[in-house]
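1st attempt posting a full record on here, be nice pls
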Amino acid sequence: MLFSLIVFLIVLSVLVFFHEFGHFIAAKKSGIKVEEFGFGYPPRIWGKKVGETIYSINWIPFGGFVRLLGQESRQRKGIDKKELDRAFFTQSKKARVIVLLAGVLGNFLLGILCFALIYSKIGIPKQLDYLKVMEVVDDSPADKAGLKKDDHLIAVNNQKTASVENFVQIVEENQGKEIVLKTSRGQFTLVPRQDPPENQGRLGVVITDMEMVFYPWWQMPFLGIWEGTKEAFGWTKMVIDGLVLSVQQLVTGVVPEVAGPIGIFQLTSQAAQQGILQLLQFVGILSVNLAVLNLLPLPPLDGCHLVFVFIGDFLGEKRREKVEHVLEIFAFVFLVSLMVLVTINDLRRIFQNLAIFSFFKKILPF
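the predicted structure (as tokens):
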């Protein structure tokens, strides 16, 4: 339990650091005064002023912040005239947008880094023009027919198959019937089971249409970054699709299947127990999640600040303050309500022993 808590806090700290460091660097480069760089949310546990910035650790551990001079409407009236040119709200729209998006970029880059390290270690995926047998289950139809690990599956019933999806379809259509597999070692006849044991599949084989390839050591980091970038964009799409589904579920009165603090703690613990690569994968996915979620137009997320960058001049100062206040109340009620529901779901899932994702999504048992 203590180990899991330590890993969870380290993971959370890394996620927050990359996000807030993005804001911090962009603000410094833009000449904006950074008043505080904080881990967690107040009340403050500890703080130290270095230069013009206070670096703090706060009691509420789920998050962090960078407090910029004049970013909040209620802070603007008391700003010293000598520092007005260093306030967030006096900067150009371009500068403010860059500062706000820098946190999102920080999390996205962390995701790419995690995925790149994984690919550099396990190899670069290469699409095969055949299916490869990675495992054969003992006493299964595949085992009895004579299939072995590393066999190349070329055709099923004289139909060439180079994709997992196509192979699955053919097997499903021939439950209880004889099929002929053409492999690199010859032909094998077997019958897909209609009611296979759990997690064994109809044939009892684990197959893939991908192969992990290692290139010269000096090429691996660059290839890893390229694959990591594609992986990050892939997860971005999945997160967006998940958000759309969650909104649809909320509208229809269904609690979405998302993880709150307890669920994230549990998943972090499971990933850490499985090894460093699984933990890196989880951190990468979680970081991409945070990047996307921070673009939502809800206080106190970056997306809400982005909205006010573009509509602030239209609203005017007084109206802007009122709108911000109303949105803060709405967001607080919404987020707290959602957190309660999600936490209840987290507790329910703990007792259902749900397994976390597999990194190799195309390796499936059949």
